[in-house]
Description:
The complex is a heterodimer. Chain A is an all-beta fold. Chain A is about 0% helix and about 50% strand. The radius of gyration of chain B is 13 Å and the shape is globular. Chain B starts with a strand and ends with a strand. The interface of A and B includes residues 1, 49, 91 and 100 of A.
Amino acid sequence: EIVLTQSPATLSLSPGERATLSCRASQSISSYLAWYQQKPGQAPRLLIYDASIRATGIPARFSGSGSGTDFTLTISSLEPEDFAVYYCLQRSNWPITFGQGTRLEIK
Amino acid sequence: EVQLVESGGGFVQSGGSLRLSCAASGFTFSSCAMIWVRQAPGKGLEWVSTISDSGGSTHYADSVRGRFAISRDNSGNTLYLQMNSLRAEDTAIYYCAKATYTTGGHFDYCGQGTLVTVSS
């Protein structure tokens, strides 16, 4: 099973700041990584797939990068609605696995 | 507009069974793999199972293999999850999700979930 490790566990930032979230895979997953955003009481929403492709309707301030084992989700300038929990997911190998999540909170 | 509406959750005793359903609309259901994902209270997301577009291929997490069965009715645009031998650790919100590809992959749309509570 491929283990995804997200860091940091919690990130405290202010609106307008840049956020950088990391996801590291226990073995190479090529570019088969997706990022999701989840707000309290809501279902997860797809932000980025195949490491760097923004999903439909996702603002340009969200970007993804990386390949192999190291991946990054960057939010260029935080909006109030961006404070949420973010998960990465790999689809390279069965079983599909998620990272444990990064909580992005308002400083 | 893609819509996924789960139903069938509820309270069940340990060792019991439940069958979840997911009614899909707004896309060509028979052309998409479908996924169940769950989230225990206060915890992260966990992939449960994937079924291919035709239903001919299924995959399960080790934690549910042999106890849960995923199936689909392409004529009725409905996804199912039969859950047997339920355990307290199966307590979670269960989300139905539309996969991006015919055989699986990540998901691009998700329902609002149905809560399953297993009492020990």
